[in-house]
Amino acid sequence: MRVARTLFISDLHLTGTHPESADRFFRFLEREAADACELYVLGDLFEYWVGDDELLTPQHDPLPGRVGSAFAVLRDRGIVVRIMHGNRDFFIGEGFCRASGAQIINDPAVMDVGGTPTLLMHGDTLCTDDVDYQAWRQTCRAPEWQREFLAKPLGERRRIADGLRETSRDMARTKPTEIMDVTPRGVRDAFRTHGVARLIHGHTHRPARHQLEVDGISCERWVLPDWYGTGGYIEVADGNLKLVLF
Ligand code: MN
Fold first, then answer.
1. What's the 167 CA to ligand 1 centre distance in angstroms?
2. What is the pTM of this model?
């Protein structure tokens, strides 16, 4: 009997200007994901996504359409693809889901993964010491701000996104790196709030398995790698987790 495999990836930051990571991603879908049951993308699939009309301008960048079609191939083979928003691509919406067959899940979400209730997050909300970022997150996730943003022409939205990425690069350079990592408090609160013993997230680009105790219960926090480097994934098969770095 075939073992049911569930795969997790995040932080691919796909963009037409970095074809190497896109190539690695398509190879991953053809090889590793080909006989999986489920594939979870825990945020930042794209370097930026300013609206589903990204799919309508292949002359600007054919990559969004190629990603949608590649997911649709998995869907047609019975593989469930679930996507969580990251801090770069939270405008992925119904249009992308229709084109790709992928389903959007909330951040956070508790899912049954191989029989274990598992908390899934992008990971940015765990970085509770990064006060500027958390304030910005509040702003840009508000329905009113999003309505106004999406009402702007596509070109203008792309320019705004470029500007924001530059600002965030500048801020990242001046901030101590610990501030951009998760905090013990953020992690503990997440385990407590959701009553689980296993968490998988991305965002920090610090792939690892951490063992910790919360209220006397032994808990595991698994962190996904980014694909700016060589990439990798987490696999759950037969109740066992493994972190694979390419
Ligand atoms: Mn992120």
1. 15
2. 0.96
Q: 84: which DSSP letter?
A: E
Identity at 120, one-letter amino acid code:
L
Tell me the per-residue pLDDT of 171-217, one tens digit each, with 9 for 90 and over. Answer: 888 888 888 899 999 999 999 999 999 999 999 999 999 999 999 99
Q: What is the pLDDT of residues 119-172, one digit of tens each?
A: 999 999 999 999 999 999 999 999 999 999 999 999 999 999 999 989 888 888
* Angstrom distance (rounded) from CA 56 to CA 173: 34
How far does the centroid of ligand 1 lie from the alpha carbon of residue 125, in Å?
10
Tell me the CATH architecture of domain 5-245. 4-Layer Sandwich (3.60)
Please give the angle made by the CA atoms of 90, 13 and 41, to the nearest 5 degrees. Answer: 65
Q: How far is the CA of 86 from the centre of ligand 1 (A)?
A: 5
